[in-house]
Specification:
Blueprint lengths: L24 H17 L2
Amino acid sequence: MAASDLNFVGADIVEVAPAYDPTEQTQIVASKLMREILLGLVK
């Protein structure tokens, strides 16, 4: 994604509620997704 010429307008991650997810998969996926979004902004 970093090598592409995408222009970000915005990004939003919602509904991460660790209290309702005993396996902690939601917060793991959300953090990995945010990492990929941020790395996509680096040129």
